[in-house]
Write a structure and sequence with these properties.
By secondary structure, this protein is α/β, with parallel strands linked by helices. Helix content is 41%, strand content 20%. The model has no long low-confidence stretch (mean pLDDT 92). The structure holds aspartic acid and magnesium ion (MG). Magnesium ion binds next to loops.
Length: 454
């Protein structure tokens, strides 16, 4: 068994769906296949807008809904599937639900889940019928009959045990070489539609890979795999053929979310490899993510970056040698649910610096200054210093510890271009060396480091 997941852009038009179907036809020659698909690109956002407009008694929802329906009808017509009855039924239902919201002027998360579910229901119904039209037998499975969740509408948690059982039964009850399943949507024990959170189709695919004991999970999108850096910033960036799960997670932590960590957790824990492929360049090798990738001559995999970083610095002679300051600092941030992105502390313990998301700076400053109000009044520590406008750049690779001089080469590359480094951290897992630079230097810094290593 193999799982092929197609993202929104892979089903965004008739031409794209044709491409996806060519890929599917080739795939089923190799193995039994479950195809998971997203809604057609942009559709989920539109559905949310339609829901909000209806709830606000804004008649504009009708136009938007018409647009959405025409977009699907156009795709269906171009694929030569005119008058596709199941599609008409779905659109009719969707219109009725939206009218209901309009009349009630109320949109609960539960109803929004129902509205959003039509995106994936429509796209996969089209996909399944087009494959039949091409003479490719397949079974469409309603994910709501197999993926079981709790009642947290908008972001439901999957019950793995029930899902496992239901998927196994479904695959036995309706034997087929090819199954088509909507991503993102599920249902709870009352049979009410739920969703797995935005971008949840990858998660559906990952879950099904585990439940169906798949040999591989292929994620088909519009990029030719993970790259050594963001190609929009670093033109010399190239695809990474092999990468470990851990490196892939480090690389996606900052920067392009080719794989989103919680999404792939199920396959990682079951050791199922993930292949990232490009629907629009299917012959490109893509990236294979697995536990133990083959040795390559470079231990370095890639560069990632993210902006909108603030640095918080705490300084004071009163901090020297007294345990507990860091715990209190972290505690203050935790109580505000602020995520710490990077930490540095000089061994003198005279200063301590943490990086957080810029949008949390005001809350962070208040929480920390409140926590240390007593020490600040005694001038043992200074009020927290907050600076914004930074980016974090990370160099990622397993076994960085076995490469001496990596940090040196990285800082030298930055120094040569006159780029000021504001903070440095190296994970003790040594899969990543991160530096903080001014966001205005981010592009230059990425290009300089890329040139030095790749
Ligand atoms: N259609 C859903 C979304 O846009 C799920 C997905 O695309 O993965 O969030
Ligand atoms: Mg998507």
């Amino acid at each position: 068994m193999q799982i092929l997941k197609f993202g929104g852009s892979s089903v965004a038009s008739a031409t794209n769906i044709e491409q996806a179907c060519t890929i599917i036809k080739n795939a089923i020659k190799v193995d039994k296949t479950i195809v998971v698909a997203s809604a057609i690109g942009g559709c989920t956002n539109q559905l949310i807008e339609i829901g909000n407009l209806s709830a606000n008694r804004n008649k504009g929802y009708v136009d938007l809904l018409d647009q959405l329906i025409s977009r699907h009808e156009e795709v269906v017509a171009l694929l030569g599937l005119s008058e596709l009855n199941p599609l008409q039924t779905l659109m009719q239902e969707l219109s009725e639900v939206c009218q209901g919201v309009f009349l009630l002027q109320e949109l609960s998360l539960r109803t929004l889940d129902l509205i959003m579910s039509y995106g994936e229901l429509l796209s996969t119904t089209i996909l399944s019928h087009y494959l039949l039209h091409l003479g490719v037998p397949n079974v469409w499975i309603d994910s709501r009959q197999v993926v079981r969740t709790d009642h947290q509408y908008g972001n439901a948690i999957v019950d793995l045990e029930v899902t496992n059982r239901q998927i196994a039964k479904k695959l036995i009850d309706s034997p087929s070489r090819l199954y088509i399943i909507p991503g993102f949507i599920a249902s709870n024990d009352l049979g009410i539609t739920t969703t797995l959170g935005r971008g949840g189709s990858d998660y559906t695919a990952s879950l099904l890979a585990v439940c169906a004991k798949a040999r591989v999970l292929e994620i088909w999108s519009d990029v030719s795999g993970m790259m050594t850096a963001d190609p929009r910033v670093v033109p010399q960036a190239r695809p990474i053929p092999h990468i470990s799960y851990k490196e892939a997670l480090e690389l996606s932590h900052f920067g392009a979310r080719v794989v989103y960590p919680p999404t792939i957790q199920p396959v990682v824990s079951h050791n199922i490899p993930i292949k990232i492929k490009n629907t629009f360049a299917p012959n490109d090798p893509g990236t294979l993510i697995e536990r133990n990738p083959p040795e390559s001559n470079s231990k370095l995999r890639g560069l990632s970056s993210s902006g909108h970083i603030a640095l918080l610095s705490m300084e004071g002679s009163g901090m020297v040698g007294i345990p507990g300051y860091s715990a209190r600092l972290f505690g203050a941030l935790a109580s505000e649910k602020i995520n710490i992105i990077l930490i540095t502390q000089a061994s003198s313990v005279h200063t301590m610096c943490v990086a957080i998301d810029e949008e949390s700076t005001a809350r962070a400053k208040k929480a920390i200054d409140d926590t240390f109000a007593y020490e600040i009044s005694l001038q043992k520590v200074e009020p927290l210093r907050v600076e914004t406008g930074f980016s974090i750049i990370s160099l990622v690779g397993d076994d960085l510890q076995q490469q001496s001089g990596t940090g040196g080469r990285m800082f030298e590359a930055l120094g040569r271009r006159g780029i000021n480094i504001r903070a440095i951290a190296q994970g003790s897992s040594e899969k990543n060396i991160s530096t903080v630079v001014n966001t205005t230097d981010e592009g230059d810094a990425l290009r300089a480091i890329h040139e030095a290593f790749f």
